[in-house]
Specification:
Helices cover 20% and strands 30% of the residues. The chain is of the alpha+beta class and 258 residues long. The chain folds into 2 domains: 95 residues, Pseudouridine synthase I, catalytic domain, N-terminal subdomain (Alpha-Beta Plaits); 138 residues, Pseudouridine synthase I, catalytic domain, C-terminal subdomain (Alpha-Beta Plaits, 2-Layer Sandwich), CATH 3.30.70.660. Strand 2 and strand 3 form a beta hairpin. Helix 1 packs across helix 2 and helix 3 packs across helix 4.
């Protein structure tokens, strides 16, 4: 008999080649499966909510595992963490309803892209924020205007990697917020789903607007072009973090999205 559990996981993605398991590279999914098989040698591969890129971090990766026996929640959390590397941690465990799949039943995600401005890289932030050099700060007002054009449902072909294999480039962006604390800037994106590199391209494009390289009113034309060459740069992966995921309410996993 299979016993499904839902894990909320956090990880520092710096030393990993992303979430998804690969034959030779070190991945978060591979480490989770390795730890699980120490406890349960026949356990199938764990399934995640999103395929974070190499170097991208997560605070709320949702993971479905199946165990061959029943576990008390805290004991399973502690047992898995005892066999995981310190950069990866199970933060919460709960029994999962039969038929629930985190990737298929996610309805919204929040990603935060973190930036640090100034003349020198802060050594304590270098693995978690993109350092944007410049004497003048980014133009937050222009960035906010540009971000407003990303809201709603659009064909985001101009904002996806050429290797993206998603069946449709249409995505719905619910909100884009800029949060400033001195030289620190967080760009918070919420949407139903995201294409390969979409958040990083949107963040890089907003930085280009903030630098004056692109006009904020150019974003509708960039979307309409459906051409990756029309959007801005791809922001580096280490500034990006998967912050939160919401799931269909009938499964009872977390609070509903509002």
């Amino acid at each position: 008999m299979s016993h499904p559990y839902f894990l909320r996981m956090a990880y520092d993605g710096t030393a990993f080649h992303g979430w998804q398991i690969q034959p030779v590279a070190r991945t978060v999914q591979g480490e989770v499966w390795r730890a699980l098989r120490v406890l349960d040698p026949g356990a199938p591969m764990p399934q995640g909510t999103g395929r974070t890129d190499a170097g991208v971090h997560a605070r709320a990766q949702g993971v479905l595992i199946h165990a061959s026996r029943s576990w008390e929640r805290y004991r399973l959390l502690a047992a898995l963490n005892a066999h995981l590397p310190p950069e990866v941690r199970v933060m919460d465990v709960r029994e999962s309803p039969e038929g629930f799949y985190p990737r298929q039943h996610a309805v919204a995600k929040r990603y935060t892209y973190r930036i640090n401005e100034g003349p020198a890289v802060d050594p304590f932030e270098r693995d978690l924020r993109w350092h944007v050099f410049g004497v003048e700060p980014l133009d937050r007002q222009a960035m906010a205007e540009a971000a407003s054009h990303l809201l709603g449902e659009h064909d985001f072909s101009s904002f996806r990697h050429h290797d993206c294999v998603a069946a449709t480039p249409v995505r719905h962006i619910y909100s884009v917020d800029l949060e400033t604390r001195g030289s620190l800037l967080d760009i918070v994106f919420e949407g139903n789903r995201f294409l390969m590199h979409q958040v990083r391209i949107m963040a890089g494009t907003l930085v280009d607007v903030g630098k004056g390289r692109m006009a904020p009113e150019s974003i509708p034309a960039v979307l309409e072009a459906r051409d990756r060459r029309r959007a801005g740069q791809t922001a580096p992966p280490h500034g990006l973090c998967m912050e939160k995921v919401w799931y269909q309410s009938q499964w009872g996993i977390g609070e509903p999205y509002s």
